[in-house]
Please model this.
Amino acid sequence: MTKTKREPILRVVPRPGDINANGHIFGGWVLSQMDIAAGIVASYRAQGPVATVAIEAMEFIAPILIHDIIAVYAEIEREGRTSMGIRIEVLATRDRGRAEVKVTEALFTFVALDEEHRPKPLPKE
Model:
């Protein structure tokens, strides 16, 4: 059986303004990229608007450096009646593609929203 290569939801290059005093990329910048990717997956599943309601088990494993290219992977890990958990993993490609490093991962919880911005049931698949 051949394993299918997964594709990232986002690929992003950090900019010089995203660097902190240590020369690494701000954690908040990484978190926002993760939220964007998770939101894309969640809104497709909800077939409409969603909102982030929680971030669980966030862990920074390695720093992101200025010349890294990050790839953000996202997939649905669990579903409830109105909410879903999206597993996010961020990998940094560095040294002109010679190395790939897992830099962080987390579980984001999203809720599907109706026209009045209230939780609504997820549609049947």
